[in-house]
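Quick log. Single chain, no ligands specified.
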Amino acid sequence: MAKLTKAAIELAKKTGWKVFPVNPNTKIPLFSGGQDKACSEPHRIEQLFAPYPNAGIGVPTGPINGITVID
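-> predicted structure:
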């Protein structure tokens, strides 16, 4: 398992947040509907990140994770 996948699983465990893989340079989801497929279950996170071992960790904002961002 890739280091970043482990980090994504740990983040989800610690916070309860759902996560998804993103391009580490642009922060854009690596597949269509990335935010909608975000999850917090370790086995599911492994499945999402497996094709993208160097992905960054995306955290959806809004009701899905209870996070509000003001820019």
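Residues 61 and 67 are 5 Å apart (CA to CA).
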